[in-house]
Amino acid sequence: xxxxxxxxxxxxxxxxxxxxxxxxxxxxxxxxxxxxxxxxxxxxxxxxxxxxxxxxxxxxxxxxxxxxxxxxxxxxxxxxxxxxxxxxxxxxxxxxxxxxxxxxxxxxxxxxxxxxxxxxxxxxxxxxxxxxxxxxxxxxxxxxxxxxxxxxxxxxxxxxxxxxxxxxxxxxxxxxxxxxxxxxxxxxxxxxxxxxxxxxxxxxxxxxxxxxxxxxxxxxxxxxxxxxxxxxxxxxxxxxxxxxxxxxxxxxxxxxxxxxxxxxxxxxxxxxxxxxxxxxxxxxxxxxxxxxxxxxxxxxxxxxxxxxxxxxxxxxxxxxxxxxxxxxxxxxxxxxxxxxxxxxxxxxxxxxxxxxxxxxxxxxxxxxxxxxxxxxxxxxxxxxxxxxxxxxxxxxxxxxxxxxxxxxxxxxxxxxxxxxxxxxxxxxxxxxxxxxxxxxxxxxxxxxxxxxxxxxxxxxxxxxxxxxxxxxxxxxxxxxxxxxxxxxxxxxxxxxxxxxxxxxxxxxxxxxxxxxxxxxxxxxxxxxxxxxxxxxxxxxxxxxxxxxxxxxxxxxxxxxxxxxxxxxxxxxxxxxxxxxxxxxxxxxxxxxxxxxxxxxxxxxxxxxxxxxxxxxxxxxxxxxxxxxxxxxxxxxxxxxxxxxxxxxxxxxxxxxxxxxxxxxxxxxxxxxxxxxxxxxxxxxxxxxxxxxxxxxxxxxxxxxxxxxxxxxxxxxxxxxxxxxxxxxxxxxxxxxxxxxxxxxxxxxxxxxxx
Length: 754
Fold this sequence. Notes:
The protein is an alpha/beta fold and about 750 residues long. The chain contains 31 helices and 15 strands. The longest helix has 26 residues, at about 645-670. The relative contact order is 0.09.
């Protein structure tokens, strides 16, 4: 991977961004700094939609302009498999790759083969059982059939294989009594089931069977033998003979008990038997309860055909199980026990392999080790359902919490500890899940040499303390060193931006900062990541001091002014705040009049500045026009670029304007107080302006609106500029985070009152 090209138009908050990210040889990380509300979240979301193949969701959610987007890697359209996105902390985020890291692919393949055989067995079982399961798909039918079987054996769901492993089928001879009995004929109708199991109904059936036996024991019905040839079967035979025109030929008759029966005689006998059976009190009670002829006939036939059926009905839970055994035996016989025994063999082999898994050597444990080495946590983590993870379950991550010096076993799932953990601990848990996902990526790439993946990470270290922020940086560094992994790290935190650039040794051409113009068109440029004053110093005086490397005069003056806060602080630390050079530089940051040997702010030239810099840094900085007044340069220079030095210049000029306005207005508001401009600086002036405005004299009441507008502008000046133009350990971070357009707007507001 060498070049990542993006072209985004009206994508979420991004109005216009076209840029190329170049991964230089040996450099696989690009750092990208962008202020809040600039583009980071939108940039990440676009890549996330590409990762999930939901490009239709990329849109302009504010103004509903038509979105256009394109992402290419080395000239080719990026594939979803080449992208992985990491957003900001999400407390509900759980890695789905824990299972993958727990179990190797060989075991998962074994389980897949077993599932295929199980499906085949259940499909054959469905054909045997005759059960009606109205669904839209065969797979769903099989699933419901499995659940029904497990329910009949009082087993939990997803326990079919375990049950199959343990059962021993009864001998076929013990099950012959159930031949021809279909599950659906008895158990497929809950209303009939309720009737059957009532004691009154069972007593009625017993009475009816006793009366039927008495009837069939009569000599003329000796051909009817309970359990072998029932009255119901006799009826079917008679109907079949008639339907097939058996009696149409002359002389054809049915021989029953040594008697020839014509069609008319046969029908008369059937009517006679039915009337005899129907006349019993037991039959009338049964008919009243069933209330359906077809269901009645099937049930009576079963009771007549299977002599011991009534005994099983009296223990119908056992009867259900016996029927399942019948069907499984039939399948085993049909397939020569191949499927049945093969499932049991493969499943036992798989269980043995699972028992032999050394969890300590799995990638999961590696991920945990990575995490534990870097982060301090008040709990340990474990997987409770290792075996079932292979069988498709989501891993149950549980936690053991420490009580002083011992581990108290308090087990909770991740979803249960949201109210237990602190905000930091929740963030740490998010990082743990993130590491699981990243370790899965590393594992996949190791197994597929040549595969490359681009990781987009957005403020993954946000809100962490410095110790843990550095731990995240350390892990990012390991990722960058992994084969096939490329990173674009987004952040709005300039200190973190500098940190990753330093720790990950990111090349100068790979450190980027996002700027925008007034039309919200974004541009990605090289960024300052080291001490800016060092770079500015060599901008104004090249190391080799050769003319061809000299900076243009206009830009050189810009850098000279930007260095003022830094140089002023150096002089203060080394020589004290009474030093003349310190006082002169102070006159450039605050509006001052002549003070002994120190010129007024408006009268300080670049010559004065060069004298200080050359003596301090042992340099020979030269300008073609050193006599130009610095204040005049600030006023006249049109600062259009969004750079750190430009922002500092704006901030200096804004504060000088603000102090001038207050020095002009305060004596008018309160003429009785005289101000010494050499002692009065911004905060002194601002506090008095605000307080005196509260007690504005009546003669100035007409001017309250104008003064109120000035006050509102000064409020912005107080929050945006004072700290920004003073050197500190965070290297101007406040002003870096500020948009140049904000400073331009503030400057324009002040201009109308200067």
